[in-house]
Here is the input.
Amino acid sequence: MPADRKRKKSAADVQKELRDLSKPDPSRPVQSPFDLKRIALRFGGGAVVVWILAAGIASWTKSRIPLLVTAVVTVAAVGLAVWAWRFAKKSQALNKLLQSADTAEGRKEALKRLDSDFKKNDTQALLARAQLELQEDPRKALSTLETIPIERQLAPVADQVRSMRAMIHLMLGETGPARSLVDAMEVGKQQEPKTRAMFAAVAGEAWGRTGQAKKAMDLLELFNPDDPEYAEIKMQMWRARAFAYAGQSDMKGASRALRKLADMNPHLLSAFVQGKRIHPLLQQEAKQILSQRGLIPRKIMRSRP
Here is the structure.
């Protein structure tokens, strides 16, 4: 019985460390699913072209209708741009709140502020709440995310919800639900590069663990885990590659990915040793690397007298 308790506690510690390592880096700027600079440039350039064409058509047809139609479309586009700007500002405020919640007391205070400062059904606030809950109780975080009606969200936000839910399922060893979620994601349509890379890591791990390893590697190879731009999500990117390589029976590649993780933090490999639904060869390689680094006591053979 004591030995069982010790194993459970060890597994829980590993999961908590993984969650801690996945927290946002306060030194890096907060990202929004919308690239406002790109949207502004495209909107500005497009608006100029449309107005030039409308003016030309109006002059040729001697009618003001093209100008009136263009004016209506422009007003609608400006309204959408204002909404996106407000969305991004709220995302920044919420993420700054998350970055300040680096202790149990800080998380408790952040949850209180979410209750008092945001509406109960605010999607962004629910995402922030789930990220706070994830540090203590992944199941609770998953339940919070499941209250968000994905079908009512814009595509970038819907995929944020899917990605986070899938990530939690993968942490819990539930590859089936994770696979269903990532199959519905549109990674290529994400505007922000780091968001695309993070979504690719989640999708790549899910596919790598459910028989679609080649598809996983085709996606993962589009992103370089050692690029400084992806420093905050480097761990997730190498973790996904380890599963994808193992799924293709490429243990040389899997070993390289595991050693990259061990260089960041050797305890990350404990998740491969103790986690659920881990490829046997991947589990064996993780044990070997940990043993080489003196983190798994070697068995001592004693001869009987």
Remarks:
- The chain has 14 helices and no strands.
- Residues 102-148 form one domain.
- Confidence is low (pLDDT under 50) at residues 1-11, 21-31, 299-305.
- The two ends are 30 Å apart (CA to CA).
